[in-house]
Amino acid sequence: MSDRIIFVRHGQTADNVQNRLSAAFPGAELSITGIDQARALTELLSKREIAAIYTTPLRRAEQTAAIIARGRRLPIIIDYRLREMSCGGYEGRNDPEVYQHLDSVWRSWTEASDLAVKAGPGGESAWQILERSTSALTRIRHDYPTGTVLVVTHSGVISLLVPRISINLDPGFGYAEWVGNCELIEIESFHDDYKCVSWGSRIVPDASAQ
After folding, report:
1. What is the pLDDT of residues 146-200, one digit of tens each?
2. What are the domain boundaries of the chain?
3. What is the DSSP letter of 3?
4. CATH no., domain 4-201
């Protein structure tokens, strides 16, 4: 399997500033701040050897990937399975009621392990999100069995997926430590599994102690 996968949340958009749910295609473009964040991330990653970049087809993720790849001749592969979690009928909302509902959804997913609960009316369940995102990782492992791959995706997917596939994280870790724009989340191969080695600036548990 890939030695290491670096997950990156896209740069900031106007929807992020307004806390507006935005999973539908094509989605918002990067703001000026988001472009600056992606450029800063490019500097941070400049000395890292990266084999390829996978991204979702949403504008903000594709733009972030393109900025990171600029000047490095890195292949950019679009995979729709890495898109943001759909909240269905709650798309476009940013009111307190919808976020109270989402809090209860995440508690169901992480505390009660009820992965069949949907994120919103007509939206996706945790099972559906995990099924498609882990399928995308299987493709990445097949295409790049060694080396480091960068995955530009979204906060909901990262927060749900990475704790579920990392042996050293609790399922609720991502929800408690919500990933910010252009933060890096890194996992590496650990025997036949993955372990999370970094989550932005947060401290992650040591897999060797598991």
Report:
1. 999 999 999 999 999 999 999 999 999 999 999 999 999 999 988 778 999 999 9
2. 4-201
3. S
4. 3.40.50.1240
Query: Which tokens go with 178?
Result: 């919500």
Which one-letter amino acid corresponds to residue 160? L
Q: Which residue has the tokens 């493709």?
A: 139
As a whole number of angstroms, the distance between CA 39 and CA 89 comes to 34
CA distance 116 to 78: 27
What residues contact residue 116 under an 8 Å CB cut-off, 6+ apart? 125, 126, 127
Prior bond of 26 cis (ω within 30°): yes
Residue with the two structure tokens 């401290």: 203
**Alpha carbon distance 28, 61 (integer Å):** 10
Whole-angstrom distance, CA of residue 167 vs CA of residue 183: 21
Tell me, what amino acid is at 92? G
